[in-house]
Write a structure and sequence with these properties.
By secondary structure, this protein is an alpha/beta fold. It is built from four helices and five strands, in the order βαβαβαββα.
Length: 131
C-alpha cells in the first residue's frame, strides 16, 4: 500500500526484517501511522541505505537476520555512526543481555501490536529530537 497524502514531511523509518510477510505487515502498519518506510532485508543492506539516505529518524530492526550482523550488532553500529537515529529492536526469539544494546536503543519482544509499535517509534523520535 502506498502512503496517502503529502509525503514530503513524513518521518522516515528504516525497517530491517528478513521475513517478507512480517515486513509487509509492519510496512502497512507504519504507513497507516503516517511514516515513510524504507525497507531492508538484512543489516548489510540497511547499513548501505543509511550511508546514502539522509533523514532516517528511526531504525526498526529484528534480531535474527541473515548477513554479517544480527540486530543487536546492527543497533550498536547505528548508535555509533548515527547517534541521532532512534533504534527499536524487536524479536520473538532472543532477548538482549548486558551489553547487547546501546543505551539509546529500545527492545520490544514480539508479538508487537500496531499501537505499541507506533508509540515506541514516536517516543524514540521525541527523544532524538530533544538530544
Amino acid at each position: 500500500m502506498k502512503p496517502r497524502g503529502p509525503i514530503r514531511n513524513q518521518p522516515v523509518i528504516l525497517l530491517v526484517e528478513d521475513e517478507p510477510l512480517v515486513r509487509a505487515t509492519q510496512v502497512d502498519i507504519l504507513r497507516e501511522a503516517g511514516f515513510w518506510v524504507l525497507e531492508a532485508h538484512d543489516a548489510d543492506e540497511a547499513f548501505e541505505i543509511l550511508k546514502r539516505r539522509v533523514g532516517v529518524r528511526v531504525v526498526l530492526t529484528d534480531v535474527d537476520m541473515p548477513g554479517s550482523l544480527d540486530g543487536f550488532e546492527f543497533s550498536r553500529l547505528v548508535a555509533q555512526c548515527w547517534p541521532d537515529v532512534g533504534v527499536l529492536v524487536i524479536s520473538g526469539k532472543a532477548s538482549p543481555e548486558e551489553g547487547d544494546l546501546p543505551p539509546s536503543a529500545v527492545f520490544v519482544p514480539k508479538p508487537v501490536y500496531p499501537d505499541a509499535l507506533t508509540e515506541q517509534i514516536a517516543a524514540l523520535m521525541t527523544r532524538s529530537a530533544v538530544t
